[in-house]
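Fold sample X.
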Amino acid sequence: MYQALYRKYRPMSFDDVVGQQHITQTLRNEIISNKPSHAYLLMGSRGTGKTTCAKLIAKAVNCLNPQNGSPCGECDMCRGIDSGSIMDVLEIDAASNNGVDNIRDLREEANFLPTVAKYRVYIIDEAHMLSTGAVNALLKIMEEPPEHVIFILATTEIHKMPATIQSRCQRFDFKRIGVDDMSARLQEICDRENISVEKEALIMISRLAEGGMRDAISLLDLCASHSTEITVMSVQQAAGLVAQDYLFEIINAVIKGDVAPIYDIISDVNGVSVEYDRLCQQLITHYRNLMVVSTVQKPENMIICSSDTLNRYQEQAKRYSVAKILYGISVLQECASNMTKSSSRRFELEMALIKMCDTGLSASNESLLARIEYLEGKLNYIMANGVAVSENKETSSTEKPQTIQDRPIKTEHIINTTESATPKIIEPKKEDVPTVPMENWQEVLERLKVLNNALRGVLLNSSAYIRGKHVLIDCDNPIFIDMVKTNEVTKDTLKQAIMEVTGRKYAIGPYNKPKPVNIGNTKSKLEEILAIANENGVDIKEI
């Protein structure tokens, strides 16, 4: 009979437990010193090793031949506990045995000495589901436990555990297992099972497991049954995921505000039997990655993906403001919540994506922030392009009051209000224009966080000066000069950032620092005249 991989590769010693070294080392030391606690409280999310460690503790304290604090796995006690034939080790599911009578029976039984083992060990899984009466009955024996009894409580919801229980236990917090540790363990299993697998596929499985090793091994088992060679595509098909290309296409359509492609993509997704709630979660993760790329200097440390995918995130993030990204996340999270109550998940997702195309369709704080940012950018663009302002004339009582769209926009340009219909902007005379430091250069760098974070990284520790209609940038990083010379997008992005901050349009260029004058090599005018006279045979005497 085939045995599932998560059961076949359940850790048999503390050394096999992945990602919980801070716990297993403490437990090992207690076993070696023969000082186990009378009660343990193991808490953490599912699949992180709570029940596994509980069984390892039960075997280790009763093992006839322990190995460096771990059970040997070969003696009669270890084998009997694994098979369930040792009645001194009892595992109780509190979800179905949570009544006060169950705990009273346990309490009466605990007073008797173990039959064959050294300790009676009671493993209570999902302990937070014990009733109030059961908790009170358990407290009585935990206050004055017999020397031969050890209680091990496991829970995924520590906040539901009474403080009176927690204070009587040695508590261990199981953390979510990291992607690197999980991928290494999955690779080890694949090597033993002769399973061909891509590294990127293992990373995807580890990410989908969300820190739970059991879920990761179960998904690996499913993928191995689905295909002889595990690839990224086979993982997506087995897990019911949408391909990464679909996600980028959906977001591109949202950025353009084009609804038609969204319906086409969702129809294609429907054809490959993808659950819409899973697609919604994938979109939330995609937006989270865009948020990281837009706000973090080194996103590769926070986004686990290939370099090509990271480049695609960075390119897409350049077309999106942080405010709109936050708005998208807010809409998708609301959609995920509504899906649990709706009869049509597809309709909920379509409605959410349409909202994301137009921030005006929502009254949330995130949508208002996105709209304000958009209007600010438009206003700065209008100011930068020198919109003419007509003369201020008093309107008579019979004139129609101006709307917001009709009101003239004030700018800092000098306007020559002549009798002609079109006012002219007076240009400054072309003379020696002074060079002054640009005081709001740091605001420009902050704006580049959104527009082009890579360019901002190159310009760190730089400064800028204004000379007439030019912004001259003083940057010692040679990469900046190469980017400006070879990449038009870089220049346009930098100009846009300067325009949005200052409200004016500037040309850009490098700042050439003045060369120091070598005073030691300079000659006075008199010395130069004397030298020329000597060369031409003119005799000059000093008086």
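Fold sample Y, listed below.
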Amino acid sequence: MYAPYNGWQGDLDVRMIASDRATNSLRNARYAMLFYVVGFIASFFFRRYFIQVLGDELLGMNSTLTSILGFLNIAELGFSGAIAFALYEPLAQDDRQQVQEIISIQAWFYRWVARVVLLASVALLFFFPRIFAETHIPLWYAYATFIVLLANALWGYLFNFRQIIFSSDQQEYKITLAVQIPRILKQVLQVLAILFLAHPYVWWLALEFFIGLLGVLFFEWLIRRDYPWLKASAKQGGLLRRRYPDIMRRTGQLIYHKVATFVLQQSAPIVILIVFGSLQGFSVVTIYQNYSVLFLGISGIVSALFNGLTASVGNLVIEGDQNRVEALFRKLYSFRLWFILVIGAVVYWGSQSFMELWVGGERYFGELDLLLFLLYMFLQLSRLPEQFIAAYGMYQDIYAPIIEAILNLGLSLLFGSMWGITGVLLGINISLVAIVLLWRPYFLYSQGFHRSVWGFHLRQTGHLALAVLLVILLGRFLPQMTDFASISSWGGWFVRAMLCTVVYSLLFGGGLYLLFPDFRGGIGMIINKVFRRR
């Protein structure tokens, strides 16, 4: 006779869990959106004045050293992804002992990673005179820059690794606070130093070092405040690692994904340097990185809206309702495509004038290179399937990242030697089309949802066809709205960009709303989360 009551109680528990998940996701998105926008504005001014005062070559050197350090960070092997997945269940069950044991394993592993990165970095320093032989930059600049960047990386491995608990516990907004507040403060102070102090690059390095240390202290304070019971012992972690074989197994799978991620995100400046040589290469790297900064700002906004859902998806997967997971994916993906394709259209129309106003000179891509960059941006921002793959803990497709890395690096070098920056972008995009556009959705649908992927590709093709058609029609019938060439002020640029955004988003969104039920469901879900009744 108690069955009705138990059923009601079970439904109530499910609704409460779903409500908490939605609340956490929305809060993560709000904080991330705010700080990514503010951070992008800070980066905008920082890069502008860095180029104008210190020059393209020094900024290119800085970007290249960052990429080299990113290569050394492959030693992390994707271990954080395996730890994040392992923490979902004990956090949901409030099993503090198991959480401490998993974090201790992370402490043990990262202690070894720090040693490997440090030793490799010391060995690399001996090659700096050869790497930077053709530049006009004092060699000590390269040494000092690399040492400062290395120190910030090592602090993450030795002290800040426990931040993973915030992500797994659906509190990513705290990571946003601890990362973005020091970063924004640092860039504001660096701009002031560049503009008003003697020896500006020395001040840049000092601020990079000390604000990085401030970020470490900020994280430590947050963790001690919110998880005072969380203690990590590297020695204990070494003894416990065999008790959690799944962590090491997933790490073995994630190694390949980590390598592919580096090749995609960090290798382009190194490839450009190899193709052009250091004398011309640093200037080309600066132009490429100008667009990368624009992409990272856009990516940050997209991440703010969607990445806060990763842990929530992980909890939804644990509940075992595949229909709900797949329905959520379709809605989110449709809404995500609308968002990034609207941004892509505005970048297509206005990026050249944006670069002219921002950094001056001819530091922008030609038409073909811009289209290849837009394809790269679309493929990168449409990686929602990987978010769901991570939530399922499905890292066994180790051949996909190997193929992606080989195609990316090999074709970028081959085509780059033939066609310069155009070839580099073409090589990157071929690898992304093969893996991100084709393979990853298939893998998610076949191994996660256990359904055919063809419906997904048909819906995706429909979104893209409508987006491109509207760009062509607006460019032909409303050229006064889409032509940014005559704009010579920031005020005029922003007014034109807002007009394009509003008109295109309404037309594109209206078409999707009429033609695609998933988009209607996605819009309804977002509105419900933002304006839901308490």
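Sample Y note: The mean pLDDT is 82.
Also: The chain is about 85% helix and 0% strand.
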